[in-house]
Structure formats: C-alpha cells, structure tokens
Amino acid sequence: MRKKNPNTLKYMQKVQKGMNHWRNKMGSPEFNHKDFQVEHVEVKIPGLDPSFNDYCLANISDIHLGQWITPKHLNGVINLLNNEKPDSITITGDFVSYILDDVAWDLEKSLKRLKPKDSTIAVLGNHDHWLGAEKIREILKRSNIIDVSNDFHTIFHDEDALLHIAGVDSVMLGLNRLDLVMEKLPKEGPAILLAHEPDFADISSSTGRFSLQISGHSHGGQFIIPGLGTFIRGPHFLKYPVGKYMVGDMVQYTSRGLGTNVFWLRINCDPEITIFKLKCPV
Description:
There is one protein chain. The protein is α/β, with parallel strands linked by helices. It has helices at 6-26, 71-83, 104-111, 126-142, 178-184, 201-206, and strands at residues 37-44, 55-60, 88-92, 120-123, 146-147, 151-157, 161-168, 191-195, 212-215, 243-247, 250-254, 272-279. It has one domain: 4-Layer Sandwich (Purple Acid Phosphatase, chain A, domain 2). It is 26% helix and 24% strand. Helix 2 packs parallel to helix 3 (104-111) and helix 3 (104-111) crosses helix 4. The mean pLDDT is 88.
C-alpha cells in the first residue's frame, strides 16, 4: 500500500485549513442548487431483467467534505439526490480530503439522510485510506451504507431477477483485488463495477463481466475547455478523465464529483450528481 508521507499529510492539512480560513473570511457560500449539475445518463445493460428496466441508479463522488464542500453544501446535494427518488445510490470514494476528525460527525449525519428505495453502496478512495479507512468504514456502517471495496452486493427484484453492484478498493494505493471480486461474483446476472480511479476500466472491461464502470477521482479535471475537454490529467485518470466512454463492450463513466482538491476553483466543470437510467437492450 502506498502510504501518504506523514510530513506531506501534515503540510496538506495546513494548506487545507489555510484555504478554508480565507474562504470563510470571504464568506462561506450558502448552498445554491445552480452550482450543482444533475446529469441524466442512459445505459443499456445486457442481460438486465425487464423488472429492472428504467432502474434509477444515482451516483455522487469525491465529496471531499471540509474543503470547498461544506456540510450545508452536502445537505443540499442530498436533498437534490433524494428528490430524484433513486432506486439505489452509489458513492465512488474520497469522502474526505486531508482532515477527518473535524468533519466526521457532519459526514455521518448527512449520509444518514440518503433515502434510496433499495440500497446505498460505496467504495473508498485514496484520501479515505490516507486519513483512516476504518473510521470511514465505521461511518458508512452506521449510515447503513454497504461497502463493496473488493466485494459485491446483489439487488433482487421479483424473486429471481438480480443486479450485482461490485467494487474495487483504491487502485492508486494498490489495494484493488478484482481477482477476489471475480471469485465471489455469481456468473448469473448483470454486474456494474464501482472503481474510484477511472483508468481501471482497461482492466475491468477485459474481464467481459461488467456492463458499466462508475468512477470519480479526477474531479473532471476542474478545468474544461468547451469543445476540447480537460487538459488536466493525472495518475489513474490519464485516459478517461471526464464523462462517458466505451471501453471494449463496457461503458466507463467518470463523474466530475462534488468537491475539489485544496484549490477549489472550477471552470466549465460544475460539480455533478449523476442519475443513471438502466435500460434493457432492445
């Protein structure tokens, strides 16, 4: 596991607190729904049972609570999310950035407000491990959120109709164990994969087992040039930094996420709530 250097982590904590100080001096922004874009994405899922047709799967990613995203922002996002009346909700990692203890209570309080019809399912990101994966997992458990890092969860409809939501742990930190997922995952029923880092799609698609991979990590680059996309690329989001791609026979979708890195500027790259509508192939 690639651990964060303790001195680097302390430095980044100071940077985050400094940036938050100046944000607060300028006036911490209230929640404005216009600052968050709801993206509606249709995805055909081969083998999907008709009882799952039009299934609403909502996703948020990269909350990074305590940086640009305040508890007020997160509660506003959850209101928007619940208003979509999702069947299930997925969260693709990085709940926090460089500070955990100061925001843990607010994070748990907000996550407990999620109201899917079926399940809320999540994987962890690299920041979650740097700050304390077990603390994050405890928050998820108390919030009735299913952690599928290197595991899977099955949603059942009409007794024998099923949909698998699988996940891998942080690819960046070398904690991903797709081999374990493949061993556990039943051969019957379509499967969707949650992977914090989008470029893992090259590996997951090669298995032929997943119809859709949902990722975050990149924040969409935070800077998008209209017609050209983002020029910001980094480790594990070099190939699939933002939006929808076909990787072999699998759809890869990379969310712009909610939060940012310590520099909270976004240009043409609004924070995103994604609403997937799953469709049976015609």
